[in-house]
Amino acid sequence: MKDLGQVDLHPNNFGPDFQWGVSTAAYQIEGAHDIDGKGLSIWDVFTSRRGKVKNNQHGQVACDFYNCFENDIRYVRDLNIPNFRFSVSWPRIMPTGRYPVNQPGIDYYNRVIDFCLECGIEPWLTLYHWDLPQALELKGGWTNREIIDWFSDYTELCVKSFGDRVKNWMVMNEPSVFTGAGYFLGIHAPGKTGLKNFLPAIHHVTLSTSAAGRILKNILPEAKVGTTFSCSHIEPNTSSSRDLAAAKRVDALLNRTFIEPVLGLGYPMEDLPVLRRLEKYIKAGDEALMPFDFDFIGLQNYTREIVKSSFFTPYVWASLVKAEKRNVPITEMKWEVYPPSIYHIIKKFNAYPQIRKIIITENGAAFTDELKDAEVRDIERTDYIRENLKYVLKAKDEGCKVDGYFVWTLTDNFEWAEGYHPRFGLIYVDFETQERVIKHSGLWYKSFLKQKTR
Ligand code: BGC
How many domains in the chain? Predict the structure, then answer.
């Protein structure tokens, strides 16, 4: 096992096939919320409800990527980043979530894809990054089992429209976050709460994920098909048996509930007993439909969580010890800066023999950025990325099947319920003028990637 000090951070040391990239998501950057026939998404509706997002901000304009995409993709090229991950907004191409198709929406993504290729950048497409068509939400959204068919039709449309040029696909972005925050806690769109929404959403997302995987592979056998999961390294607050058991439940909820059924292991009901209530939604034959053999699994990691047992939190009987109370360095999101987390996560998922390949499809941090003399000296973000990369390389050097790293994110953007305040970008955005300034972290990533010679 290598010490971190012995890790030589050079892109060549990650191997010739390692995929370097940057990630984005439609609602967070595109704006153009009602242009060219686009339908409403649940985020358009959620952000229009007062008090749901900090300062009542919304993504109506965001980074205006819809109009500025050429400019921003040129930045990707100029930063020497070979892979660009973006998502398709379902209501932009299917305004009601179902047929008929909105051709201007398809044309727009064709322009984005073509421009990436013209710039020598490989497009990586995510099918679902949280902006469900509102028309489908009115029918229950992810709680309605019919969504498996709706999502399958949408997937097929994307594959048939873009599959001649897009070789790398991701089905879902972080199911635990969009179901947990959107259908249990109500702090993200569509703002639903409780187990009665959360449990059916879990099961329908699982079935939709594997259904979409099958559609993709049937139509495009050569494509690289993956799906992404949010994951955090979990540690118990003390070594008491109660905290250990609490940590196990939280780990099952945050890190295992969505991936294990896809890997053919079923839901982790033993370790998180509340999941037994999923049985109500599982129909005969579902178990065979849940697994799908993805070419890669996208892991998205930002921090670690410290867990203690709690009698006040139903179902998991556990709570997170806030980083602010632990006297540790934190980001603007109040998440602990703890780069070893990514190493532990890679090790943990590497141990599943069913996973063929791991790609870190998101990693990054929000810090208070100051634009001064046309520069943003974001030393903390640069350090964060550099340290995280060292841990990725350490895991790789130890034989883990990790084969890619995508920074979250290209430009500062709409950070969901937090609005525009936490800035995660490699590029600073003045949201009044839409001017961009490459931050020092962006310049660092650029010079780092420039060293790649094989
Ligand atoms: C999501 C992104 C989000 C980022 C930072 C991930 O959970 O995929 O959409 O902006 O983390 O919070």
Answer: 1
